[in-house]
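Morning F.,

Quick status update on the modeling queue. The single chain you submitted on Monday has been processed. Sequence for confirmation:
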Amino acid sequence: MVLTGTLHGSETEFISEHPELHHYTSWLGLKGIFESGTIWATHYSGLNDSTEGYLLRNVLVEPLSEWLRDNLPRSKVRNRIDYPLSDASGKPSFEVRERARELINLMYDRIIEHPGRLSAETAWSDPLITSFCNHTADSEYERAHGLLSQWRGYAAEGGYCIVFDTESLAAALCKELDTYNFLHATLGGVIYLDDQKTVKQELKEILSFFASPLGVKRHKEPDDFLTSPLAQLTYAAVRIKHRAFKEEREVRLSLTPVTAKMVRDNSPGTFPNLPIKPIQLRQIRGRWVNYIPLFAGQDFTKLVRRVIVGPAESVNKSHWRARQILGSKIEISRSETPFVK
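Structure tokens below.
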């Protein structure tokens, strides 16, 4: 769902289908979250999937090549085409595929932030992400005691699972959007590459982005950025995920804060008259990565249904540590999953 300052029909439907979302973290993560009353949205290059944000490059090549093969003959550049559009089998030619790769790389260079940049204000579009697991389709055991694969990732030092109330979380996000200037914010499930039907539909919606520089006639674009092909490219880049992570059933909060560069590069009134959310930097695996804290100044405890203490050598010790941080307002339960080191 695309979030604005007000919840609409699609948002309430998502909430009713997914009443709670699980966020797994370490002891230090739990401590930091509740002591600060915030949760961080981090640049996708800081996540644990090395293909994060870049799968779209490869996924787009085939459908864009086919689109170029069919549309270049009626484009402005048709008189400058001195190479075959199809090979002997009718598939896009090598030259067309190379043209598709060039356009995709151009899109990434202009729209999607480079992980190596140290400046927090240089990108046009800098998607920042917070991840959750959706256990709606899992058994009651996973909802109550957590997912084993997630515990394996967080239980070495005693992990925890924060179970968020989705309706309260969405309301807090709306308040955040009313307070600071964001280009877009979405909350929804990621698209895994084995779901070809959904992937193809997602790509179909964004291919028209490439029509403009080629002069291909198309329907008039909406004025609203949220529904433009440019936005769809940004959404797709951070929604498509490697199939190896499918077990997580990830629900992803993706936000693009308006930056000082956006304000400078556009005419007055382009963006709402709201404060810019400061983008901060931290090191992850030796690389500087952008992030923003969310929900500062709100009552964070109202967003949380309960906290699950994960498998540990001493679950009682983990439970006691959590209670010292959480106080008596939040329910704390113990996972019955056996400890796996």
